């Protein structure tokens, strides 16, 4: 019994003498999320993104609106929803600019699908925002946007 008590005491003494003092964690500054890696889309979904980029760059609201379902939505960051092709065409009318869309994920099941991605202002540039596109396959087999929701990567003030 005495030997067991000595052994336990020795183990406790060794663990206390080698224990490191606990350090209080210091608050960390928020870090930029790592750049997402893009995924390859099926050609019919890739067409949605390339047509979107082309119309956006040209500032062609009518062409952008044609990518949407008749009753589609744009759900912009910090603004009310825009609904229907005519309103979407008006909303997107005007100056375009550089835009590069990149998919992070996508899926389709029957006649519905989605694309989740990021956008930047130049090829290979850092993402300045992210988006989700909800899609529906039209009777002609072409994928149309039902909803387009995007927001920037900068914190709101």
Provide structural commentary.
- The protein is of the alpha+beta class.
- It has a domain at 43-151: Nuclear Transport Factor 2, Chain: A (Roll).
- Helix content is 29%, strand content 31%.
- It has helices at residues 2-18, 43-58, 61-65, 85-91, and strands at 68-75, 82-83, 100-109, 112-120, 129-137, 143-152.
- A 6-stranded mixed β-sheet has the order 2-1-6-5-4-3, with helices on one face.
- The protein is globular and about 40 Å long.
- The N and C termini lie far apart (69 Å).
Summarize the entry for a quick read.
The protein has 157 residues and is of the alpha+beta class.
Give the distance, in angstroms, between the N- and C-terminal Cα atoms.
69 Å
> Main sheet?
6 strands, mixed
What structural class should be given to the helix and strand makeup?
A: alpha+beta
Instruction: Provide the CATH architecture of the domain at 43-151.
Output: Roll
Shape: globular
Order of helices and strands: HHHEEHEEEE
Low-confidence stretches: 1-34
Share in helix: 25-40%
What is the count of DSSP helices, taking H or I runs of 4+ residues?
4
Question: What's the CATH topology name of the domain at 43-151?
Answer: Nuclear Transport Factor 2, Chain: A
How many E strands? 6
Strand order of the largest sheet: 2-1-6-5-4-3
Q: Percent of residues in beta strands?
A: 25-35%
